[in-house]
Amino acid sequence: MSEVVLCEQSGRVAILTINRPEKMNALSEPVRAEMLAHLDRLAGDDGVGVVVITGAGEKAFIAGADIGEFEGRSPFDQRHAMRSPRVFDVMATYPKPVIAMINGYCLGGGCELALSCDIRIASNKASFGQPEVNLGLIPGGGGTQRMPRVVGTGQAMRLILSGDRIAADEALRIGLTDLVFPHEELRARTFELAERIASKSPLTLKVAKEAMRASERMGVEEGLLYERDLFCLCFASQDKREGVAAFLEKRAATWQGR
Ligand code: COA
């Protein structure tokens, strides 16, 4: 495997770094394939509780799909390139929390990748946008579906129809990023949160994520019933017994993930 995606681990947090800084970490076919391979492996690694995605270098998180790959492609070639499993959908349904650590340009497919993550944390130097309209294209990595759900239809329309780029503070104001930190603190602050999340029961994290993701496709009544069923399902777990016992015995819980 070449090294267009680096994978490191710190405690229970794995970090995947898109490593094409000279191309603003554009999502080429090899990048997507390596990301899928890493995600597949990390899903089965009990030593990993949370995955963080970021971009190499000081300028870009991910500046979108690799535009060079679009040239000369037929619709069938493009359909093949967009075959399932797609990295965006894999991350949204991933059995562990995925955090986007947005260190710079977060554009096009990069913004869509961030939108597929569970939590978005940005540097104050980051900027966001869906510039596909400038290429005679529309977002194709889920942007027209996920963006309105995250920021509302009006803000999504504004960003996708204009192709405008916005700064991190505005992204925070409209809910496109969840947190913003000074650039120098981004990694430490992201890891602080990632490690805190990764210290919880992996089983509970998986079920909580599943319940919240269901709200994207279910009506509220159906979603509330689904939540109730998942809540009751937790009563079958060793971790629920341990969590409740630890609280009552005034001690820290030790999670088994089952
Ligand atoms: N696909 C392929 N290559 C890309 C790219 C992308 N999405 N984004 C940047 N690059 C390449 C540039 O072509 C350039 O390559 P070169 O050095 O071989 O010419 C290199 O990355 C550096 O980019 P450059 O444009 O010189 O840097 P900049 O700091 O002036 O601008 C951006 C940075 C991100 C604002 C600008 O590169 C840009 O607008 N990129 C395209 C964003 C986009 O439209 N994304 C949606 C794709 S569907």
What does this structure look like?
The structure is a single chain. The strands form two sheets. The protein has a six-stranded mixed beta sheet, sandwiched between helices. The chain has a four-stranded mixed beta sheet with strand order 4-6-8-9. It has helices spanning 29-43, 75-81, 87-92, 109-116, 143-151, 153-162, 168-174, 186-198, 202-214, 220-234, 238-248; strands at residues 5-10, 13-18, 50-55, 60-62, 98-102, 105-107, 119-123, 127-129, 165-167, 179-181. A hairpin with a 2-residue loop joins strand 1 and strand 2. The model has no long low-confidence stretch (mean pLDDT 97). The longest helix has 15 residues, at 29-43. The protein is α/β, with parallel strands linked by helices and 258 residues long. Bound molecules: coenzyme A. Coenzyme A is lined by residues 23-24, 26, 63-68, 105, 107-109, 131-132, 135. Coenzyme A binds next to strand 6.
